[in-house]
Write a structure and sequence with these properties.
Layout (H helix, E strand, L loop, with lengths): L1 E7 L2 E6 L9 E10 L2 H9 L1 E2 L2 E2 L4 E2 L3 E9 L11 E4 L9 H4 L28 E5 L3 E3 L6 H5 L1 H14 L6 E5 L3 H12 L4 E6 L5 H6 L4 E4 L4 H5 L8 E6 L4 H10 E9 L10 H7 L2 E4 L6 H10 L9 E6 L3 H8 L7 E5 L2
Parallel strand pairs: 11-12, 11-14, 12-13, 14-15, 15-16, 17-18
Antiparallel strand pairs: 1-2, 1-6, 3-7, 3-9, 3-18, 4-5, 7-8, 8-10
């Protein structure tokens, strides 16, 4: 089979490798679609992020869906031909955090396409993947495999919503309209947000926000005063999802938050200064949000039931053989939202 393997920054190769066979409790899946994530782009463009570096060749990818082609011994909940979304999160379920129900903080996590441990955890951008049956979630007939592959980033934002608390009737600010920011709109709307305002510094991404339910979009590079107006009367928004990782976005968002509001930080950036006086005087809660666990199944259920629509966010699909161009397109925010690979 063929796989997309990163060797170093800007050195992505489509290479042949031997497929695995499904063991007990496992299934063999022919991958149909895979989405390129921000972490994949860090490996492609920079060879890693922070202290995490590629130290040996690694298959990229963790947002995937496909069709079951073989069953391992003891698997009865699936049949050959079932279409499934595959959670990339494989916690050990034995460490102290897993035993507390905090599997997203597993100390022995095996998350597809991660260079954090040595040896690296190989990813899912391959024509055939062997996965544990418990990772797989059936996909309804009306849901495309491309949509199903969006379950992973959708789960990230569903976890962020759970960290925020109830959104019923709340006014929400989303800072940064990449795929995660855009999916925060989807998740917030599904959880009862009454008003959603989205900011970014690029005009090209803002129509995507409108397509999935934003009430208003603001280009804060061109019109910072439009966001600043929400700071009147000690602020307007009840909840902010910060998905840019940008210090200026964080500071301007805090000004627009009302007293006793909640800021959920999803975007990963460098070290940023925090206006502590504002946090204290407004009694703002700041909460981090990292990955997901049970939210993956919820994401698939929402897609299967037609309660959310992620199709407007899939901007480009490239064949696996053209993966380099796919990564180049995904690296340009002005040209794309969610770029996916097609494996068949």
């Amino acid at each position: 089979m063929k796989a997309a393997i990163i060797h170093a920054a800007k050195d992505l190769r489509i290479e042949d490798m031997e497929p695995e066979a499904a063991g007990p409790g496992q299934v063999e899946i022919r991958i149909g679609a895979g989405g390129i994530c921000g972490s994949d782009l860090h490996y492609y463009n920079h060879g890693g992020f922070g202290d995490v570096r590629i130290r040996h060749p690694m298959i990229l990818g963790h947002e995937v869906a496909g069709t079951i082609t073989a069953l391992g011994r003891g698997v009865s909940q699936f049949a050959v031909g079932d279409r499934v979304a595959i959670s990339p999160s494989r916690p050990c379920n034995a460490c102290k955090y897993c035993l507390k129900g905090l599997q997203n903080h597993c100390m022995n996590m095996r998350f597809y396409g991660s260079a954090m441990p040595m040896p690296h955890i190989q990813g899912a951008f391959r024509e055939t993947l062997v996965a544990e049956a418990w990772q797989c979630h059936k996909v309804a007939d009306h849901v495309s495999l491309g949509e199903a592959a969006m379950a992973e980033p959708l789960a990230v934002t569903l976890h962020a919503v759970s960290r925020a608390g109830s959104l019923l009737g709340k006014r929400v600010l989303v800072s940064g309209c990449g795929p995660i920011g855009a999916l925060c709109i989807v998740s917030a709307r599904a959880h009862g947000a009454r008003e959603i305002v989205v900011t970014d510094v690029l005009d090209e991404v803002l129509p995507y926000a409108q397509a999935v339910g934003a009430n208003r979009v603001i280009n804060v590079a061109n019109k910072p005063e439009d966001l600043a107006a929400y700071a009147a009367g000690k602020g307007y928004f009840d909840v902010m999802f910060e998905a840019s990782g940008n210090a200026r976005a964080l500071a301007s968002g805090l000004q627009a938050l009302a007293p006793r509001s909640v800021l959920v930080q999803l975007g990963l950036g460098g070290e940023v200064g925090l206006p502590q006086n504002m946090v204290v005087s407004k009694e703002i809660d700041i909460r981090g949000s990292f990955r997901f666990h049970e939210e993956y199944g919820l994401a698939v259920d929402l897609l299967n039931q037609g309660l959310v629509d992620v199709k407007p966010l899939i901007s480009e699909t490239y064949p696996l053989s053209d993966a380099v161009n796919a990564f180049e397109t995904a690296s340009d925010r002005a040209r794309s939202m969610k770029v996916q690979l097609a494996f068949e």
